[in-house]
Amino acid sequence: MLLQLTVFCGIALLAGGAQAAKPVLLVFGDSLSAGYGIAANQAWPVRLESLLSEKGKPYTVVNASVSGETTDGGLTRFPQALKIHKPRLVIIELGANDGLRGLPVAKARSNLGAMIAAAQKTGARVHLVGMQMPPNYGPDYTRDFAAMYPALAKQYRAGLTPFLLAPVINRPDWFQPDQLHPVADAQPAIAAMIARDLAPLL
Fold first, then answer.
1. Which of 57, 113, 151, 200 is the least crowded, having the fewest Cβ atoms under 10 Å away?
2. What is the pLDDT at residue 5?
3. Which residues, at least 6 apart from 73, have a Cβ–Cβ distance to it below 8 Å?
4. What phi, psi does 43 have (nearest 5°)?
5. Which strands form 159-161's sheet, in the order they lie side by side?
6. Is the pLDDT assigned to residue 13 strictly greater than 80?
7. What backbone torsions phi and psi does residue 183 show, to the nearest 5 degrees?
């Protein structure tokens, strides 16, 4: 009986250790990742954790996204997030609020580059998720803004999803009344795209 109990306790400790060793995937974004207007457990990062587990790539997904975040704000709080969560993989989805405010693309690019470099310095792999601006911001601004993400991915050898809203942009019914934030029904499609694009890093 004592031997059986010892063996059982040993197995339990091993299982607990394996669970504790599950790597962290940090999602660091704005309202589009925070789940603005929907329940927190419906946001695409939560769906992503399930998809990765189904693919045999289990991660603990920590969603540190904040609605309204700019790249300036993100850069300020990013070091602490890295220190707390010690992620093995980081998804950075920022820049939309910079664009909507017409802030300089060069500044956003500098901020994003600094975040990518900081994450890579800790040994984490980085996946960058891009956005696009509507044409009313002018052809030069929209072109430079969209080009920022692939340029950064190439410079830092990071993963890339060029446009977060690509799976939903042609589905008006998948947007909330503000026409900016996807509804809950759209989140699985976004998560599936991210999971597909993450494959090379996994």
1. 200
2. 39
3. 66
4. -65, 155
5. 60-63, 24-29, 89-93, 125-129, 159-161
6. no
7. -80, 175
Contact 93, 57 (CB under 8 A): no
Task: Give the pair of three-digit tokens for residue 141.
Answer: 């601004």
Hey, what are 22's tokens?
């599950």
- Find the range with the poorest average confidence among 7-21, 63-77, 170-184: 7-21
The one catalytic residue in 30, 31, 65, 127 is 31
Q: Residue 162 — left, alpha, or beta (φ > 0 → left; ψ -120 to 50 → alpha)?
A: alpha
**181 flagged as catalytic:** yes
Average pLDDT over residues 93-111: 97
- Is 65 labeled as catalytic in the residue annotation? no
Backbone φ/ψ region at 37: left (φ over 0), alpha (ψ -120 to 50), beta: left
pLDDT for residue 20? 54
Share of the chain above pLDDT 70, in %: 90
Query: Which pair of structure tokens corresponds to residue 200?
Result: 């090379």
Active site (annotated) includes residue 31: yes
